[in-house]
Amino acid sequence: MRVHVVSDVHGRADALARAGEGADALICLGDLLLFVDYADHSQGIFAELFGPEQTTRFIGLRAEGRFEEARELSASLWATLDGEPRVHIEEKVRAQYARLFEAMPTPAYLTYGNVDLPALWPEFTRDGHHVLDGQTAEIGGLTFGFVGGGLRTRYRTPNEVSDEEYARKVEAVGAVDVLCCHIPPAVPSLLYDVVARRFERGSEATLAAIERTQPKYALFGHVHQPLAARTRIGRTECVNVGHFRGRGRPFALDL
Predict the structure, then answer these.
(1) Which positions fall inside the Calcineurin-like phosphoesterase domain (predicted)?
(2) Which of 11, 82, 94, 225 could be disulfide-bonded to 34 (CB atoms 3.0-4.6 Å)?
(3) Is 47 a domain residue?
């Protein structure tokens, strides 16, 4: 059996429609939405609402670590729109989700990323889309565990949870053959993004679970340009499945 795995789709409905070709099932590790595109400032929800020039200003402030100024800029831009910001965000999010879930092959096993809005997913999932978070599924005779979302950071992305809540989800999954998460385990080489030149947050709870239970694979995304895309922890092969928005092709796992 062959399973294709994607993460960090960030709006690539075109490539997502082809991601299941040649596979028996698709796994998606989250971050379906594109709020801000750091490579193309004309793309994403922020640019649709405020234009590429303001997006460039916003990205520049964040890249320099000037997060309070970035939040002040964002607040001043939201104030120029009529109505509540949430209404504008959800309108754009729903438009993206409609395209993405329509393109999503079946069967697909999905968990959330840190930029996703889980409350909206039930509006768009179809038959054959299995959404799992702190839960397991049997695929090809193996047990897959799924842990979605991210941990809290200074970026304040929409779907960040506390360390305690994240650890509870890892514990609920228990011992599995394949552990699927959006964020990596807390291994420095897996967390450093060589283009952004920063460490992303990884999970100590996931690392402890891998060390304790030794699944065959630990699969994740989140870090778009990692210093190391693979490493071993005991007998567990840890794999960053790649930045799907940039690559446009899935990671293939033969079971």
Answers:
(1) 1-226
(2) 11
(3) no
Number of domains in the chain: 1
* Per-residue pLDDT tens over the stretch 134-160: 999 999 999 999 999 999 999 999 999
Distance (Å) of CA 143 to CA 4, 5, 39, 161, 247: 16, 15, 37, 25, 27
Contacts with 161 (C-beta within 8 Å, 6 or more apart), sequence order:
149, 150, 151, 152
127 part of a folded domain: yes
Q: Is residue 20 part of a domain?
A: yes
DSSP assigned state of 119: G
CATH number at residue 188: 3.60.21.10
**CA proximity to 203, closest of 162, 233, 158, 236:** 162
pTM above 0.70, yes or no: yes
Q: Which domain holds residue 134?
A: 2-33+105-254
